[in-house]
């Protein structure tokens, strides 16, 4: 199976419309060289451009949906189109990921569960998703998570429990914590004996330099490929069958102990 992670440069020198068209063209360029294409988190606005969330928010089936559905079908690829600031007509904004099939149909939408910012930014501007999301591709079952979710191992274990073998994580991770990004991507791969495809952004927006360094890790924790800091297409070939082999040969997941008692005081 081949995957292309499109590490997009998100900066203020480009309008949302022109970036949307540019990214769609990059997706089309992957025709024939990737089965799955992955985009980063909030690449229309930038994950830290909090002031743009309200003005650029779109309904689920808004302009990004339309352009990306067409790009997926033009290229004939599975497309994890990263996330958009979604305006729910009956609720708050959400940080929502869209996954399209090669025919351009929406295969899944995932509202980010862990919002970043503590008592500001995304954490107060957006609502929290509540549902785990997986997508069955012909080659593998994909479990989706977004950026800050990477810090919460229980979410990934939940995805594994419902069949995920390949964990896809779009992000807008800052350069300041790049070491965490690489370490956490490897940790999630090792502990879940799963592939991790984590796609970040490049550039600087809202004064926050982005880490780039999108990464693909195999179920043994080996880094199969890692991008540099700038805009880049990171294409990698991997064997999804390695998940079953790893889980069979080193069956640590079977040794989980659930429902541990809390200590008595
Ligand atoms: O956890 C981090 O360090 C970065 C998270 C983040 O930037 C986000 O979720 O948008």
TrEMBL record:
The keyword Oxidoreductase does not apply. InterPro entries: C-N_Hydrolase, C-N_Hydrolase_sf, UPF0012_CS. One of its GO terms (molecular function) is acyltransferase activity. PROSITE patterns: CN_HYDROLASE, UPF0012. This is Acyltransferase. Keywords: Acyltransferase, Transferase. Residues 1-240 form the CN hydrolase domain. It comes from the Bacteria. The keyword Acyltransferase applies. CDD domains: nitrilase_5. SUPFAM superfamilies: Carbon-nitrogen hydrolase. Belongs to the carbon-nitrogen hydrolase superfamily. NIT1/NIT2 family. It comes from Streptomyces caeruleatus.
